Amino acid sequence: MKNVPARYLMAAGMLLLTFSAVCQASESDKPSEPVVTLSAEAEAQVANDLITAVLEASESGRSVPRLSGIVNARMHRALEIVRQHKSVTSETTGYNTYPIYEKGRQVGWRVTQGLELKSSDSAELMPLVGELQQELHLKGLSFSVSPGARKQTEDSLITLAIEAFKQRAETAVSALGYQKWKLVDLNVSTRGRPDRPVTMYRSKAALGAEAAAPDVEAGTSRMVVTVTGKIALK
């Protein structure tokens, strides 16, 4: 066999490489399946079935040991009362000691300790809060959906939102003149926002010497599940 000049071998190699590159470019230029981004929501109004009450024991004066003793005694008596109510959970929070200033000069100390109560039984919690105000003062009430009720509602809304997403996908396929679709990507997110509850307090004068027990309307929370995804049309 005759020897082939090196320049011809190089030319053949360049031709092969060029042909291969053209083939790859042709394959990459093929139109891909069009992708459409869609979203759907499902929502529900859910009753706020969990009440949180925040109370505080506090005392001001010049002697920190004496103030701490007073606050500790008040909190001890309050916890003894709370333990009699089985449907109420309690947690002490934030024991603080800080100076009190007047006109730039320290005039004393203030000692505080918080108590957080939670219950789904307003008929038991509200009278308890009124009773505890003989030892502590009420800082606030908040209303929310309990974890169990939240999970149950979210599970139901996720199913509804996904079904709504499927219906939108079918609508997009038909409107754009395609036959089928396949799921490319899907994200599910949840959010909830409590509506503003109404809280009313009866005056101490109306109750005599006893502290006021709050009358409350827990209200509802709006829970929303959003499904966002991408589909490829066929």
Radius of gyration: 34 Å
Can you tell me the overall shape? elongated
CATH fold assignment of the largest domain: Translation Initiation Factor IF3
Strand order of the largest sheet: 3-4-2-5
Helix content: 25-40%
Helical/strand content category:
alpha+beta
Largest sheet: 4 strands, antiparallel
Mean pLDDT: 83
Following the backbone from N to C, one meets helices and strands in this order, namely: HEEHEEHEHEEEE
Rounded to the nearest angstrom, the distance between the terminal CA atoms is 55 Å
- What is the tally of beta strands? 9
State the CATH class of the largest domain.
Alpha Beta
Number of domains: 2
CATH superfamily of the largest domain: Protein of unknown function (DUF541), domain 1
DSSP summary: helix tally:
4
**CATH architecture term of the largest domain:** 2-Layer Sandwich
Q: Give the percentage of residues in beta strands.
A: 35-45%
Regions with pLDDT < 50 over 5+ consecutive residues? 4-27, 197-209
Could you characterize the architecture of this molecule?
- By secondary structure, this protein is an alpha+beta fold.
- The chain folds into 2 domains: 31-49 and 145-234, Protein of unknown function (DUF541), domain 1 (Translation Initiation Factor IF3); 51-101 and 108-144, Ribosomal protein S10 (Alpha-Beta Plaits).
- It has helices spanning 6-28, 64-82, 122-132, 147-175; strands at residues 35-47, 50-61, 89-102, 105-119, 137-144, 181-194, 198-200, 215-217, 220-233.
- Strand 3 (89-102) and strand 4 (105-119) form a beta hairpin.
- It is elongated and about 80 Å long.
- The protein starts with 5 loop residues before the first helix and ends with a strand.
